[in-house]
Amino acid sequence: MSNESIGIIAGKGQFPALVARGARAEGLSVVMCGFHGHTDEALEHEADAFAMLHLGQLGKLIDFFRDNGVRRLCLAGAISKPRALDLRPDLRAAKVLFRLRAKGDDAILRAVIDELESEGLAVVQPASLVPGLRAPEGVLTKRPPSDEEWADIRYGWPIAHVLGRLDIGQCIVVKRGMTVAVEGMEGTDATLRRGGELGGEGCVAVKVVKPGQDDRIDLPALGAGTIRVLADYGYTCLALEAGKTLFFDREESIALADKHDISIISMPEGFMAGEEPEVNN
Hints:
The chain is of the alpha/beta class. It has 2 domains: 5-131, Rossmann fold (3-Layer(aba) Sandwich); 134-267, LpxI C-terminal catalytic domain (Cytidine Deaminase, domain 2, 3-Layer(aba) Sandwich), CATH 3.40.140.80. The chain is 35% helix and 20% strand. It has 9 helices and 13 strands. Strand 1 (5-10), helix 1 (15-25) and strand 2 form a beta-alpha-beta unit.
C-alpha cells in the first residue's frame, strides 16, 4: 500500500470505481466508504480498505477515514435522493442538519464538507483523478441541432439555470418553447421518462451545472443509460455544459445517439441563451 492515500465516499454507479483506478494509476492507496442501499458492495475489490455504513453515520465515517490515515478524500457516485429521505442521522449528522436553514442537495453536501474539513480531511475534486470523463466542447454527434432544437435550447437554458440556482435540479425537458418536465429528487433519467411521456416525440433535454456549484460535489453526469432513455422516448436533442459534465461511456453513448439521430451538443462555458454560440462541429 502506498504511503499516501485517497479517501472515497462512494455512491452508486461506476464513478467510484473509475476514481479508485485513477488514484491507483497515480500511486495512491484507496480507502473507500460506501452506504447500504446505495453502494455496490463489489467496490470492496477496488479498495485497500473498505467499509459499508448506513447513510447518516457521519461520526463513524470520519473515524474510519482518520483511522486509515486519510488526509484527502472525495465524493464519487450518486445517492438515491428518495431513499435518502429515510436518513437516520447519528448525533454528529443531526447537529449538522439542525444548523441548516435549507435542506437542498447543495446545502447538505456543503455542510458535510465543512464538517469533514473541520477534522482535517481535505475534500478534493473526484474528476481530477479521471479528467477524461469531462465532456468536451462542441457538437459531439454527427448531426448538429436543427433551428427548432436551437430555439428550444435557448428557451430552456436560462430556465434550467434558475432551477439550479434554487437547488432544485439540473435537467429540464422542453418542446416548442414550452417546459414539459423539471427534475426534482427523482434524478435525470426519471425526469426524461416523465418528459417523454408528457411531451411525446421531439422533446429536447437541457442539463446544466447549478450556478455556483461546488465542483467537488454533484457534477451533472450522463452515460449510455441516459442516451437509451432519450432514444426510447423519441428525444431529438440533448444540450449539456462542456467541461463541467461527466460523460461516462462516451464512445458508446455517441454511437447510440447517432444510431437514433439524436443531436448532442456540449455548450461552451459562459454560454447565455441570447448568444450565437461558437461551438466545434
